[in-house]
Write a structure and sequence with these properties.
This is Alpha/beta hydrolase. With 420 residues, this protein is α/β, with parallel strands linked by helices. The protein has 13 helices and 13 strands. The chain has an 8-stranded mixed sheet with strand order 3-4-6-5-7-8-9-10, sandwiched between helices.
């Protein structure tokens, strides 16, 4: 049994429970700790056994491999499902949205975006999902300091890994970009060709335009007056330009433009915007996504939820218009009724609308993959194992790497208490 040094206070008065969770979560699997707490004024010792977070066990249709890629010197967790049938299979890489949420979960459970991944895993596709820096088993971070260029490289390395797996038909690789994933997706797909892309709830204009739309419509939804919203949009536009384009600090803005102090404090609490430093947003603002879309050879399906108030149909139409302009065969574009920003949720509490969305996406991609096969795109490829021959099972882990012990990130732990 090990205990933290007596001089270390893990939780200060007033700290949120998340502080304790983060500190315990950083400890390796197999360690034990004793927490000394006061309960109803009486001291109590809680003995915690640190065990590995349960893995996705897969199913009779697909196996699950826990692997990793290296980006900027840090190992990033990749989770791969592979059909149990032999041969080469089409593949889907899922790029999640903005928030630092772990995608290390069972696909048949309630995990965020699990339905779309489960549909493809059961449908004979190899699938891949990636945890962001500092999230789950992934190294790096913290989330606030990871900029757009740095995070983009994670998905670049992951796509390289996916296309290098022995069981993948490299002529039929697809990318699904949800929300912010629709910003990372075209950058990566321009460098590493893919067959097609599915996009839901994305942004494709300049980020200055998009953020002003977000401010306007969400403040109106919150009940603010039209005149008040107009004032906020004007002030926010000036403040965002100073931060994202002129690289001014919030203190500099308030000193030189005191009339913007209130909007700066509201928009950039603690100097951050949406819990990120200005570097992330400056790089987004300086990225010409139309340039990437015009040069991306992938066929595109762009879908927007009719009830989505986080993103807007104009961004999806822009991608579709660019796609048509380069005379490629676009998959489709359109609206999904009763859908909010999380495409598998919606006004239908039964989840039926979400299932229809998932099934529609799977059907469109499968038809595209079949067209590719019919045209001979996979010609000359011999059938092989659906499992990477480099995968090996070590003690309680499965890793696609030459040396699991040397290269696989430590598993995140879950805490089990012996005291009730």
């Amino acid at each position: 049994m090990t205990t933290p040094p007596s001089s270390v206070k893990w939780l200060e008065p007033g700290d949120a429970p998340a502080s304790l969770i983060a500190k315990v979560g950083a400890l390796p699997v197999g360690k034990s700790v004793v927490l000394k707490v006061l309960r109803k004024g009486k001291p109590l010792e809680l003995r915690l056994a640190l065990i590995e977070k349960p893995r996705d066990p897969g199913s009779d249709q697909y196996a699950v491999a826990y692997s990793d890629v290296t980006s900027h010197g840090h190992r990033m967790r990749t989770i791969i499902t592979q059909p149990r049938t032999p041969g080469r299979h089409p593949a889907l890489m899922f790029i999640q949205g903005f928030s630092p949420i772990s995608y290390d979960y069972r696909l048949d459970g309630p995990g965020l975006d699990a339905p779309i991944l489960l549909a493809f895993a059961r449908g004979g596709f190899v699938t891949m999902r990636v945890d962001k820096p500092g999230v789950g088993d992934s190294e790096g971070g913290p989330f606030a300091t990871v900029d757009f260029v740095t995070e983009t490289d994670i998905y670049r390395q992951a796509l390289f890994q996916l296309k290098g797996l022995d069981g993948v038909d490299t002529s039929n690789v697809f990318v699904f970009g949800h929300s912010m994933g629709g910003a990372f997706g075209p950058v990566v797909a321009c460098e590493i060709p893919v067959r097609g892309m599915i996009l839901y709830g994305i942004e494709s204009r300049t980020w200055h335009e998009y953020l002003l739309d977000t401010l306007r419509y969400q403040e109106l939804l919150a009940g603010k007056s039209y005149a008040g919203v107009d004032d906020d949009v004007r002030a926010s536009s000036r403040a965002m330009e100073m931060v994202f384009q002129d690289h001014m600090t919030t203190l500099q803005i308030k000193a030189s433009h005191p009339e913007l102090a209130a909007i700066v404090d509201t928009t950039f609490p603690g100097g951050l915007f949406n819990a990120k430093t200005s570097d992330f947003w400056s790089q987004l603002e300086n990225t010409n996504f139309a340039w990437y879309w015009s040069r991306c050879g992938a066929r595109v399906l762009a879908a927007h939820g009719a009830s989505d108030f986080v993103t807007y149909s104009v961004d999806h139409r822009l991608v579709a218009d660019i796609d048509r302009g380069r005379k490629s065969r676009a998959l489709a574009d359109g609206r999904v009724q009763s859908r909010v920003h999380r495409y598998h949720e919606g006004l239908d509490r039964s989840g039926h609308a979400g299932k229809r969305m998932t099934s529609a996406c799977a059907a469109v991609i499968r038809r595209t993959a079949n067209v590719m096969r019919a045209s001979g795109g996979a010609r000359g490829r011999s059938a092989g194992s659906a499992r990477d021959p480099g995968c090996r099972r070590g003690p309680a882990r499965l890793s696609c790497s030459p040396s699991a012990a040397a290269t696989t990130p430590a598993r995140r732990v879950s805490c089990r208490s012996s005291c009730s």
